């Protein structure tokens, strides 16, 4: 599956109710990213502190699930802003290969 297919399927699975104001829609997805990013930080902290940095199967599944939720929320926000995930990925890589990238 590529980003375009993922983004299209995500849009098909969940539709924002038409009565929801655009600004509330944006906030919903941004808060989702923020919440799950915090959870990812906590999971990594647990991995380091409780598992001595050893990634077992259960922890791998938990981290994968949280990263999936982050991707889901990012995808929904990108769709609301009419930005293709492919464009985000390309832009990110282009910025990273430049010397002195921000």
Q: In terms of topology, how is this protein built?
A:
Elements (H helix, E strand, L loop, with lengths): L2 H11 L8 H29 L6 H24 L4 H13 L5
Summarize the structure.
This protein is mainly alpha-helical and 102 residues long. 75% of the residues lie in helices and 0% in strands.
Keywords:
mainly alpha, 75% helix, 102 residues, Helix Hairpins, globular, 4 helices
Average predicted confidence as pLDDT: 91
Number of helices: 4
**What fold name stands as the CATH topology?**
Helix Hairpins
- Tell me the radius of gyration: 16 Å
Give the topology string: H per helix, E per strand: HHHH
What is the class in the CATH system? Mainly Alpha
Taken together, the total number of domains comes to: 1
Description:
The chain has 102 residues and is mainly alpha-helical. The chain has one domain (22-97): Helix Hairpins (Orthogonal Bundle). Helices cover 75% and strands 0% of the residues. The protein is built from four helices and no strands. Helix 1 (3-13) packs across helix 3 (57-80) and helix 2 (22-50) runs antiparallel to helix 3 (57-80). The model has no long low-confidence stretch (mean pLDDT 91).
């Amino acid at each position: 599956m590529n980003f375009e297919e993922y983004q299209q399927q995500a849009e098909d699975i969940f539709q924002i109710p038409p009565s929801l104001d655009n600004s509330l829609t944006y906030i919903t997805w941004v808060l989702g990213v923020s919440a799950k990013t915090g959870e990812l930080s906590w999971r990594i902290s647990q991995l380091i502190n409780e598992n001595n940095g050893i990634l077992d199967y259960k922890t791998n599944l938990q981290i994968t699930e949280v990263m999936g939720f982050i991707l889901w929320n990012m995808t929904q926000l990108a769709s609301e802003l009419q930005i293709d995930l492919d464009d985000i990925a390309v832009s990110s890589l282009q910025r990273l290969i430049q010397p002195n990238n921000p």
